[in-house]
Amino acid sequence: MARVEWIQSDGPISEELIKEVEQYFGVEFPIDYKECIKEFNGGYPEPDVFNINDESDAIFSCLLSYTEEGANIITLYEITSEFLPSKIIPFARDPFGNLICFDYRSEKEPSIIFFDHEEHSHEAIFPICRTFTELIDSLYPNED
User: Fold this and answer.
1) Contact 7, 43 (CB under 8 A)
2) Residue 59: pLDDT band by 50, 70, 90 thresholds?
3) Is 57 left (phi over 0), alpha (psi -120 to 50) or beta?
């Protein structure tokens, strides 16, 4: 994760706050994500572009915040949970209202998926990669 710069963070958060959010969702987040969110809560990565299925580009706008009201991880989940399949937990978003999520449906260690908010079906889910670190390491600059 060394080549990504995080800007406009909402400030560091405690391990206790992360545990509260994990308890809310009934999961344990991956260690690499917890280390990142602890320091860069609500932050925007630069670079910020990644691939979905090696076919199309998507933008990683920001990590969902544990402290900011507007982009709060629990608030956003509550708003979108009726459209999200069970055990899909958002942790980031793109600029268009789509979500980047952990997929806990089949394994204890979740994979990373993209949820297209306009689809509202199983067709709305696109695999991205296996781990949070893999996602962050795959970010590249927008060429436009």
Assistant:
1) yes
2) very high
3) beta
